[in-house]
Amino acid sequence: MDRTTTTGNNPRRPDLSRDNLVDAAIGLIDRDGAGALSIRALADAVGVTPMALYNHFSSKRDLIAAVGERLIRSTQFDGGHGDWREQLRYCFGALRHLCLRHPGLPDLLKLDGVVPEAAYAPMDVTKKALQAQGMSELDSVRTFFLLTGYTLSQAAFQSHPTPALAPTEKVRRERISGRGHGPVDRRDPPPEWDFDASFSFGLGIILEGIEGRIRAR
Amino acid sequence: MDRTTTTGNNPRRPDLSRDNLVDAAIGLIDRDGAGALSIRALADAVGVTPMALYNHFSSKRDLIAAVGERLIRSTQFDGGHGDWREQLRYCFGALRHLCLRHPGLPDLLKLDGVVPEAAYAPMDVTKKALQAQGMSELDSVRTFFLLTGYTLSQAAFQSHPTPALAPTEKVRRERISGRGHGPVDRRDPPPEWDFDASFSFGLGIILEGIEGRIRAR
DNA sequence: GCTGTTATATATACAGTGTATATCTATTCG
DNA sequence: CGAATAGATATACACTGTATATATAACAGC
């Protein structure tokens, strides 16, 4: 069946489609985080019954993958104009800013271990930049994992300030652990922590290490 | 009340306690992953009613934090004998192996953004090693985040092979997306991927970058 | 021994979650 | 038009964490 046959502008049937649903889903996670994306919440948001979504996505995993696909595809990773260092800075800066603009994204993907196809665009950029410097394909891929792991972990760290304790939990904790250090929430960095500078510092170290490997070739 | 007043060896009341519960919880996540740790599953495992657990933990977050605390505390991070490089290799090697022995651990902690107090032991090791080389405290902490982010992301990548599609999901997907690339599961590395070598390679790059920073002081 | 207090385990219930199954309806095609 | 089909719905199930109220077991002091 032709995909564009969706009831024209008939208001009776809402115009569901993968695209519209992904739009709405992104709205949800941008507003209230990855946890806010539930089948029922999304159905409510588009004014439809939960099970209706299953005519467009085979599962929540499928939906999540589509969200990731869309967001990552909307980002350009190969815009660096200078040398390999600039290219990598651009590429992973773009990845980082994508994660910061959509703080729910890394959580969402990690939640179900989904890796959208598009997520490997930065890998291609990295391989191209480094192989041009004489690095082997294997080492280029390894370096890609290094850069990606670092970038995502930093973005996640920046995006999630300490989640507050639920009030009732706090009360019960006092009752229970008269002894024993209670659990500790994600410890915040000092409030004036400069995430940009911190990320840049770590990236600089990595780039310097890469340069050493390249020169040692 | 004295903590050791737990009914002696009376079999009527099972000997619940934070320690025993954490033991059982670790058993669950080691056997079936982070997702297998639910209040009800843990209660079943120790032969008790779900709500009984809430006399020992204020919430599931509390339980998770205790599990993390215990596992991390059981690990020694400062056993390196050589120079700062060896110390860091030892420290983050230990962190990595901890995560590999308990593949559910990173997921578990990330799940609720919990960071056990003990998780900052590696930070102390890193600060000590690097400040001894003249690095500032700020940069040492930044470097710690770099090393931790890399180590955890690599361990997570190694621990989670592609989750299989649920059978019904596969069927429905065929029905739906006659068009559109379906979602992609975590793409596996090639089957002969050498995780140890890959981790070592990335760590080497980081250490080389650090050395550059230290020398440039 | 008995009694009151405190610690712990239970029973029940609620609001969520993803999704299987069956049904109903609106649209399109022959 | 009638038949086929795509898509939305209604209901239900098994699961989650946990609030609330109740019951029971252990201990303190008499």
Automatic annotation (TrEMBL), chains A, B:
Pfam families: TetR_C_1, TetR_N
Gene3D superfamilies (alphabetical): Homeodomain-like (1.10.10.60), Tetracycline Repressor, domain 2 (1.10.357.10)
DNA-binding region: 38-57
Bias (Basic and acidic residues) ranges: 169-190
GO biological process: negative regulation of DNA-templated transcription; response to antibiotic
Organism whose genome encodes this protein: Gellertiella hungarica
Stretches the record annotates as Disordered: 165-191
SUPFAM superfamilies xref list: Homeodomain-like, Tetracyclin repressor-like, C-terminal domain
Domain of life: Bacteria
Domain HTH tetR-type residues, every copy: 15-75
GO molecular function, one term: transcription cis-regulatory region binding
InterPro entries (alphabetical): Homeodomain-like_sf, HTH-type_TetR-like_transc_reg, HTH_TetR, Repressor_TetR_C, Tet_transcr_reg_TetR, Tet_transcr_reg_TetR-rel_C_sf
Name listed for the protein in its UniProt record: AcrR family transcriptional regulator
UniProt entry keywords in alphabetical sequence: DNA-binding, Repressor, Transcription, Transcription regulation
Record's keyword annotation contains Transcription regulation: yes
Function: TetR is the repressor of the tetracycline resistance element; its N-terminal region forms a helix-turn-helix structure and binds DNA. Binding of tetracycline to TetR reduces the repressor affinity for the tetracycline resistance gene (tetA) promoter operator sites.
